[in-house]
Amino acid sequence: MGATRRLRGAIIGLGNVAVHGHLPGWRQRADAVIVAATDLNPTRQAECRAALPEARWHDAVDSLLATDDLDFVDVCTPPSSHAVLIEAALARGLHVLCEKPLVGSPAELERLAGLARAARAVLHTVHNWHQAPLVRATDALIREGRIGGVREVVWRTLRTQPAAAAGGSWRVDPSIAGGGVLTDHGWHVSYVIPRWVGAPPDAVSARLETRRHHRFAVEDTATVRLQFPDAVADIVLTWAAEARENQARVIGTTGRIDIEDDTVVLRADGREERHRHPPALSDGSQHPDWFGPVTDEFIARVLGRDPSHRNLDEAAVCIAVECGARESSRRGGALFPLAARVGSAG
Fold first, then answer.
1. Measured on CA atoms in the order 13, 16, 21, 23, is the torsion positive or negative?
2. Which of 80, 123, 276, 330 is most buried when burial is the number of CB atoms within 10 A of its CB?
């Protein structure tokens, strides 16, 4: 690639996440441009023209991938389509950025990671909660040693219902979403908390249930415990709450951190420090401000500036946690050992 040529990408799936979450980030980049788009719903063509006036519209993915001027695709479709779309893009030698959950099983991840290696292409998942100001501030305090070694994490994601989805409520259709609140919100928790702890979990126990939304064919509440070599994390994820909010607490050997709305509260050395880092984690569902740093990571990998496999290692942990949590719930909440192949996915 010439020193001045911009990377050329395509959006697959023009739903709410793509239009309100991803496109604002791509528009701000000088080194990449979205030149094509497609969606199963032909009525989205009008939205494409409004949001991407210079991009080509394709009626089908095959037509889009057959063009010769693409460097990457950004997959923003529901989870059930991820694996087949990723495989098709990698077969064309294209780099792939994909929304979470990347895929639903360790075997799928291993196969696609192998295809990416063979194609010398980047496969990268959107782990945008790492970029939330509250999460970044908490991570920085932990890395600075302000609370000592992390020993306990408490996390609550409280929602009254699933996030709205363009084209209908696919998030509650197990054939499309794969699962309910555990699939939708558990992925974020499964990459954020291990980074705080500094290690992947080695076991999980969970109970999945429906507390309010009995018309759903998926769980609306998940109670999960992650066990680490030297720490534990207790997690509640629900679509059945009375209000929308997030709560988190990180307890270390010498102090603790609380996330309260848009504020990080550090209690250590007999003192309390409060620092606001808006927006709150519960503020919206597309988070366009968090997507820019995701594209920074992706483009750095595409250009060979970041050879690490950290992102796919985190995806491997996320998949292992969800699969293990579901098996634990089927066994009545029994502790289930995890064997995420950390370090081998990329």
1. positive
2. 123
Give the separation between CA 223 and CA 185, rounded to whole angstroms.
12
Nearest Cα to Cα of residue 340 among 155, 166, 46, 106: 106
Question: All domains of the chain, ordered by start, with CATH?
Answer: 7-128 (3.40.50.720), 129-291+315-337 (3.30.360.10)
Gap between the Cα atoms of 21 and 29, Å rounded: 14
The burial of 120, by beta-carbon neighbours within 10 Å (0-12 exposed, 13-18 middle, 19 or more buried), is given as: exposed
pTM above 0.90, yes or no: yes
Q: If you ran DSSP here, which 8-state letter would residue 180 be given?
A: S
Q: Which residues contact 313 (CB under 8 A, 6 or more apart)?
A: 342, 343, 345, 346
Question: Do 78 and 100 touch, CB atoms closer than 8 A?
Answer: no
ω into residue 101 within 30 of 0, thus cis? yes
* Side-chain-side CA neighbours of residue 159 (13 Å): 22
3-state secondary structure of 297: helix
